[in-house]
Amino acid sequence: MFMIGAEKKQILMKELTTLYRTLM
Predict the structure, then answer these.
(1) What highest taxon heads this organism's lineage (predicted)?
(2) Each residue of 2-17: pLDDT tens digit?
(3) Looking at residue 12, what is its pLDDT?
(4) Across the chain, where does the E strand assignment appear?
(5) Alpha-carbon distance 17 to 5, whole Å?
(6) Hey, what's the torsion of the CAs at 19, 21, 17, 14, to 10 degrees?
(7) 3-state DSSP call for residue 4?
(8) pLDDT at 6
(9) How far is the C-alpha of 21 from the C-alpha of 6, rounded, in Å?
(10) What is the pLDDT of residue 1?
């Protein structure tokens, strides 16, 4: 379960980074 949580967190960070770069 912890591994899945870490994977979701990594995906979320990647989406946030993409959104940030898009806004900039």
Answers:
(1) Eukaryota
(2) 677 888 899 999 999 9
(3) 94
(4) none
(5) 18
(6) 80
(7) helix
(8) 83
(9) 23
(10) 55
> How many whole angstroms separate alpha carbon 23 and alpha carbon 19?
6
Please give the structure tokens belonging to residue 18.
Answer: 């993409």
CA distance 10 to 14: 6
Q: How far apart are CA 19 and CA 11, in angstroms?
A: 12
Side-chain half-sphere exposure of 17, counting CA atoms within 13 A: 6
The predicted model scores a pTM of 0.51
Residue whose structure tokens are 């959104």: 19
Distance from C-alpha of 5 to C-alpha of 15, rounded to nearest angstrom: 15
pLDDT recorded at residue 2: 66
